[in-house]
Request: fold
Amino acid sequence: MGVFLIKRILSVIPILLLAVLILTGLIHLSPVDPAQAYLSAAHIQPTDELLAAKRAEFGLDQPFYQQYFDAVIRLAQLDFGTSYLSGKPVLEDVLLRLPPTVELALTSLLLALVVSIPLGFLAGIKKNGFFDHLSRVIAFIGASIPSFWLGYLFIFFFAVKLDWFPVGGTGSVMHLILPALTLAFPLIALYTRLLRGSVIEALNEPYVLFARTRGLKEGRILGKHVLRMAIPPMITGLGMNLGKLLTGTIIVETVFSWPGFGRYFIEAIFDRDMPVIQGYVFLAALVFIGSSLLVDIIQAVLDPRLAKKGGTV
Reply:
């Protein structure tokens, strides 16, 4: 297990270096001049002299390899520079905006797991039954309705018509329910059908038949053997969506006026705040890579054979 962990952690390094390379290249491909964006945000009339001075200050007059090397050093220290608008370090603004996004993402994830695990399990063991048909309806709705439209529907019915929840903002648990449900609904649809398929596949395995012929109780077979073998594919899907949750809350935060990391990124795009945009993209890559690494480790713990085979999950 120790060798497996070391190999997986070391494999992350070239991926991060590639992410920084792409991020550095995007600055040159972008039509936005960071120096001009900075002067515009500071309400300073750009001149050739000021633009040249700012490009030198930002290191944009250096060769590409030097800019890449400097970016690696800075990002390794989580130094994303200073926001053009607030004048504060980007990391300081990120740490201020990240907790609401983490709160929203974890609540959505918890809600999705609480609903999808029992629903998917019952849909699998009772194929073509009530819970199976219910899971199909949820999957159809979750795959068909975009998050922003689902959010507006929730606001219209539950906030405007019924007045059960506030329209947007933050401050209480009631403010959290609608955006969390909007984020959780597609995940419920995905995890329910994923677990259902895994349960049906596990029920057809020979070891389940052997367990039944040995006279084991059905509850023990379902809990100890079927559910245990059906959970790993769901964990893989969970890891793939964890990064999406933390970085993909942009639309939901905008719809519900949630003061999180995603909304901060949208504001930075409109204001052409390049350090914030770069910081967000790098942190997004870091979250996706970290969640993938975490899933590989959990899978290896659940099935030690993966670690012995080199960690192919």
Summary: The domain at 100-260 is CATH 1.10.3720.10 (MetI-like fold). The chain has a mean pLDDT of 79. The CA atoms of residues 96 and 243 lie 19 Å apart. Residues 90-125 form the longest helix (36 residues).
